[in-house]
Design goal:
flat; 289 residues; three-stranded antiparallel sheet
């Protein structure tokens, strides 16, 4: 903790605002949007919740294909199965350890031609993947410009899983801001934490508003309890958002500390034959999560 988190938490208690609404939630969303360079952010209960809502916003339905890189944490893929869709795992590449653009395009073409085969060796149906989940694993940005070009070529929305990559960037463009939708995680092991939490990022105001609506049980604006859509209990509390606001004040320092750890190992192994660390491609900046 940086220290100022207690001030924001105290404000939440003194105002009796401990629910999933309040000044800290609004302030945290503003801080996240400003830092990442997107227009809108929704503070949520976890990065997985953010991914789940992102896929719903991309209209993922049972039987759809969703492309996901194969080297990632299971949370990148689990929401695909929540929705009854089928994950299509694509190989990663050695430069960033993230989704390989060449393999990505190959998987899209094979999917559209009905040449994907699954566990029982039967071919899948010919259909365009509904969305692509590209992950910035361990804080290292994926080849986002190539990936975006491929996604645009086939008109497939891109969900950028930046759960581990807050503060990482490519030529100054922040991770979380590349995709049609971006997601962050504030789990206890991340660069900054709210103990548990996540966020959905986008320049599309309507999508972020819909995410907030779905995350608060999709309760309709009626004088009684009325729900015309399936909703979820995914909003972040005003207390945890207060922790997040304090953490944002020390984010850059936490990144400097992580990068210092990397340099420690770089020096430690520099003369050891057969050991190579994980270099940043030109123009890339990793938070070294």
């Amino acid at each position: 903790m940086g220290g100022s988190e207690k001030d924001f938490i105290h404000d939440a208690f003194s105002s009796n605002m401990i629910a999933p609404v309040g000044p800290n939630v609004d302030g945290f969303e503003h801080d996240l949007a400003a830092y990442t360079g997107v227009k809108y952010a929704a503070a949520l209960s976890s990065g997985t919740a953010a991914l789940h809502l992102a896929m719903i916003l991309c209209d993922v339905k049972p039987g759809d294909y969703v492309i996901c890189q194969n080297m990632t944490f299971s949370a990148s893929a689990n929401p695909i199965r929540y929705l009854g869709a089928t994950p299509v795992f694509v190989d990663s590449e050695p430069e960033t350890w993230n989704i390989c653009p060449d393999s990505l395009e190959k998987a899209i073409v094979m999917s559209m031609e009905g040449r994907l085969y699954f566990g029982d060796d039967s071919p899948g149906k010919a259909q365009k993947p509904k969305t692509i989940v590209a992950v910035n694993l361990y804080g290292m940005p994926a080849q986002m410009n190539r990936i975006l070009s491929i996604a645009g070529k086939y008109n497939i929305p891109l969900i950028e899983d930046a759960a581990e990559a807050l503060g990482s960037h490519i030529n100054g463009k922040q991770c979380g801001s590349f995709g049609h939708l971006g997601i962050l995680s504030f789990n206890g092991n991340k660069v900054v934490t709210t103990s548990g939490g996540g966020a959905l990022l986008s320049d599309d105001e309507a999508m972020v508003k819909k995410a907030r609506f779905l995350a608060t049980q999709a309760r309709d604006p009626a004088p009684h309890y009325q729900h015309s859509e399936i909703g979820y209990n995914y909003r972040m509390s005003n207390i945890l958002a207060g922790i997040g606001r304090g953490q944002m004040q020390v984010l850059d320092e936490r990144i400097r500390q992580r990068r210092a750890n990397y340099r420690f190992y770089e020096d430690l192994f520099k003369d050891m034959k057969g050991v190579a660390l994980f270099p940043e491609p030109e123009g890339y900046f990793s938070n070294r999560w």
